[in-house]
Design a protein that fits this description.
This protein is of the alpha+beta class and 466 residues long. The protein has helices spanning 3-36, 87-98, 163-169, 173-176, 225-235, 367-381, 443-446, 451-465; strands spanning 44-45, 56-61, 64-71, 74-77, 101-102, 104-107, 123-128, 133-141, 147-152, 158-162, 189-196, 199-207, 211-216, 242-245, 261-267, 271-280, 285-290, 295-300, 327-334, 337-344, 354-357, 360-361, 387-388, 402-408, 414-421, 426-431, 434-441. The strands form four sheets. The chain has a nine-stranded antiparallel beta sheet with strand order 22-21-20-19-24-25-26-27-23. It has an eight-stranded antiparallel beta sheet with strand order 4-3-2-7-8-9-10-6. The chain has an eight-stranded antiparallel beta sheet with strand order 13-12-11-15-16-17-18-14, covered by helices on one side. A hairpin with a 4-residue loop joins strand 25 (414-421) and strand 26. Helix 6 (367-381) packs antiparallel against helix 8 (451-465). The longest helix is centred in the first third of the chain and has 34 residues, at 3-36.
């Protein structure tokens, strides 16, 4: 190595040592300076109180003063002005206020509150216990929209709080209003009725003993519980699209003088009737008025699927069903020809059930015969209706073309379902001599799983294997 190269290497090493030493000195100084700064994570407490002790809440904003009191774990509105308010919004306000912390203290002695919008607060929230009041004044948001200015009433210390918490507190009357068509749990809904153009479309109610029953247009317990439950779940999720007007006087302006629909929903604690008027074609919103408050709102029409349902949608589509273990005999008459089925079955042991067809032991013919017998029986209890016709008055004294007479092991001892011709392709369904209101199409009996084809398959099998 030449002396020139050795000198160059020595100089480079020296430079590295100098810069490395300088780095550690500077880093140490920076670390020391940062450790001397106050921590940004220091808690700055504004309020800390137990929400369980809050008995009353007062909210004052540009729309007025609103008071709420806690009774039986539920908020109730005080005063003469009443509206459907959102319990969850109220709880959210109280929860956030009870543990409210500041991002920072802006000033401990504000000289000009107008700088912060606190000379005339947009909202004043008061939480009251038996012995204390906690009063928060809400100012304006910061210019950067990352915080809100607030202070305690009676003090001059101005705090900044998280912007989203500020939005929770900075509320109008409209923000306090309930946004749901009917605010309840699905299990709490006890009744629903719908009118269209003055006529009842359906009316269903729930009892502790019978479950869901239909009251109108047909009184029956044979309801489609799955469809009703789905409707209830839909109803409690429907949100108001827009708030339009309070305490409406002129019903004709929105079409409430001649409502297109009237919906009534009830729970054990409340009933709400809602009138629906004109539709705004541009937005597909429909005007609605809550009868209790006379508040006008809109809903998006495509969210109101319950208005497209009919009574038929809420009923079981079969005319009459019986379990084989409840029967001893079934007599089928088609155009005067009698077929007799017998049953020996237990609900606890259906696999060993015994069946006969016109005296033929079906079980003796094997499993295929049993399956064909069950298919035939299913076609009888599976006869479904096409539509309701409650205005019809069929002559029930006429001889039916098709009838099923069930002999039961319990009361009533017999049930007869018969079908009287209405037209070339339809029948009236009659139960024990009374018109059911159901109309059945002829094709129901001629489908692949219908009466005629399943009986024909069973008879052919019996003839081939007897």
């Amino acid at each position: 190595m030449s002396s020139k190269q050795f000198k160059l290497i020595t100089i480079l090493v020296a430079i590295i040592v100098v810069f490395t030493t300088a780095y550690f000195v500077i880093d140490k100084r920076i670390s020391k300076k940062e450790s001397e700064q106050p921590s940004s994570l220091t808690n700055i407490e504004i309020f800390n109180f137990d929400i369980e002790n809050i008995a009353e809440v007062l909210i004052k904003n540009k729309d007025g003063e609103f008071a709420f009191t806690m009774e039986n774990n539920k908020w109730l509105q005080k005063g003469s002005e009443q509206f459907n308010f959102n319990q969850y919004i109220l709880n959210d306000i109280i929860n956030n206020m009870s543990t409210l912390q500041a991002l920072e203290i802006i000033t401990e002695s504000a000289e000009d509150l107008s700088l912060y919008g606190l000379d005339s607060p947009s909202v004043v929230i008061t939480c009251i216990t038996d012995s204390n009041k906690y009063i928060l004044e809400i100012g304006k948001p910061s210019i950067t929209k990352n915080s809100y200015y607030v202070k305690k009433q009676g003090e001059m210390t101005v705090y900044s709080i998280d912007y989203n918490k500020g939005l929770t507190f900075d509320i109008t009357k409209e923000d306090l209003k309930d946004i749901y068509l009917f605010d309840a749990l699905s299990s709490e809904v006890m009744g629903i009725s719908l009118e269209c153009d003055g006529a009842v479309v359906y009316s269903v109610s729930k009892s502790n003993t019978s479950g869901w029953i239909m009251n109108q247009p047909l009184a029956t317990e044979r309801t489609n519980v799955a469809n009703i439950t789905s409707m209830v779940d839909s109803i409690i999720r429907i949100n108001i699209a827009n708030f339009i007007q309070e305490n409406v006087q002129d019903y004709s302006e929105y079409g409430f003088d001649n409502p297109s629909y009237i919906l009534e929903i009830s729970s054990e604690s409340k009933t709400e009737k809602i009138l629906f008027g004109k539709t705004v074609s541009e937005t597909n919103e429909i005007y609605a008025m809550f009868e209790s408050s006379k508040d006008v709102v809109t809903f998006y029409r495509n969210n109101l699927s319950l208005m497209d349902l009919t009574a038929e949608n809420l009923l079981l589509d079969t005319i009459h069903t019986e379990n084989v273990y409840d029967l001893s005999k079934l007599e089928i008459i088609v155009n005067g020809e009698l077929t007799t089925l017998t049953f020996e079955a237990s609900a606890d042991d259906l696999t060993n059930a015994k069946y006969t067809y016109n005296g033929t032991d079906i079980n003796a013919l094997g499993d295929d015969a049993v399956k064909l017998f069950i298919n035939f029986y299913s076609s009888i209890v599976g006869v479904y209706f096409d539509h309701l016709d409650l205005d019809a008055q069929p002559d029930t004294s006429l001889e039916p073309e098709i009838s099923f007479t069930y002999t039961r092991k319990s009361e009533p001892e017999t049930v007869t379902i018969s079908f009287i011709r209405e037209s070339e392709n339809t029948f009236y369904a009659i139960k024990d001599g009374e018109y059911t209101g159901f109309v059945v199409r002829l094709k129901t009996f001629h489908e692949d799983r219908g009466l005629f084809k399943t009986q024909d398959a069973l008879v052919r099998y019996i003839n081939e294997h007897s």
